[in-house]
Amino acid sequence: MSEMIREVRVTTFKRKGIHSHIRGLGLDKDGKPKPIGDGLVGQLEAREAAGIIVQMIKEGKMAGRGVLFVGPSGTGKTAIAIAIARELGEDTPFVAMDASEIYSSEIKKTEVLMQALRKAIGVRIREFRLVYEGYVKEIKYRVPKSPYTPYMMVPREATITLATKDDQMTLNVGQEIASQLREIGIRKGDVIYIDAQTGAVHLVGRAEVEGAKTYDVDVVKKIEIPKGPVKKEKEIVRTFTLYDLDLSLALRKASFFSLFGFVSEREIDPELRRQVDESVKKMIEEGKAELIPGVLFIDDVHMLDIESFSFLSRAMESEFAPIIIMATNRGITKIRGTDVESPHGIPLDLLDRLLIIPTRPYTADEIRQILRIRMLEEEIELKEEALEELVKIGTETSLRHAVQLLEPSRIIAERKGRKEVTKEDVREALRLFMDVKQSVAHVKKYEESFLR
Prior knowledge:
Blueprint: E1 36-37, E2 40-41, H1 44-58, E3 66-70, H2 77-88, E4 94-98, H3 109-119, E5 121-142, E6 157-163, E7 168-173, H4 175-184, E8 190-195, E9 201-206, E10 231-241, H5 242-253, H6 255-260, H7 270-285, E11 289-293, E12 295-299, H8 306-315, E13 323-328, E14 332-334, E15 341-343, H9 348-351, E16 354-358, H10 364-377, E17 381-382, H11 384-396, H12 399-404, H13 406-415, E18 420-421, H14 423-432, H15 436-445
Parallel strand pairs: 3-13, 3-16, 4-12, 12-13, 17-18
Antiparallel strand pairs: 1-2, 5-6, 5-8, 5-10, 5-11, 6-7, 8-9, 14-15
Helix pairs in contact: 1-2, 3-8, 5-7, 10-11, 11-14, 13-14
């Protein structure tokens, strides 16, 4: 740990993921969806159906079944899948992959899918650990330019002050911890703890403290300021995936691959996986561990071929199986690897095992609410006229394009010496960055100039 902690000079850095605001399905106690809740907007029928799926999972009634989201691009299919995982618990594994990722010259398609399935199954183990816990009173980064990619700003060090009701401590942490703080998006007022041995950072919630920004649509749960010392022993619930355990055993048994870091790119022996499964079963029977079926989300599932679909059908019936959620924006199309046409490009025998949930395009009002959440999450100030311009863009093009224009619009405003984004800034960003329809029109206009 001593190597992770150094004195630093600092600058600030911010980063938000496209779905970082989602915390659940936004349902009331009766399972009915709120118009806006837990970071989700609209898609009321799909969210209500997803809530029923969550209840079925908790009651152990999803064995041998999967879920399929069907709808146009940009209608929240991935967002709802993430929300299902959040509803199942904060440490529920969520693995997202695109169906095209399974095609590799290094490793078999079935091995890629098997690794994804194993990554989506967690094993929860309880133990006491030495941690630093408190609310973030101050956080600063030192972000030098990367020598490999100078246009990327990678935090090398950070200084963070943690406080409780009874104590306060300032820590100088190294690149590993600083990168986690940045990835999670830790800011003033967040309650976190840092494992003193491993350096793992965990966001617990947000405390209402002076100077901390809070919003009506805030998606991080509110908690009280912790008590006691910052540095203390705490009961930690650690969650590993079956893939983590597979890899750990493979590293111990294959020192050559361990030395050169090749194990994660090679196939894992089925016998080794069987040993891991037996070990996990033993820990569960002894009460030392708990199995957590997570979520494997496969986007663009129509890209899978007939062999992959057959493998997934069998995987749904296995003893250790996660919840398999798929998504597609295709209608009637050929099943890859065959000349047979089928709904969504999925074999009918697999479709019979799936609970199918449709999503629909967002209304203008729903786009407005989603943009409000994103502007608050990314801390961008928009004039009302600028917001309405983005709503118009989202309606005429796509929600994704409107959300993508938020950051360019902010940069354009900053270059003009303003913090608040105006309608003209949005229009300038729209002029500089094309949407899909404009891109197609551009290609057609200069079709003779493009290489074929």
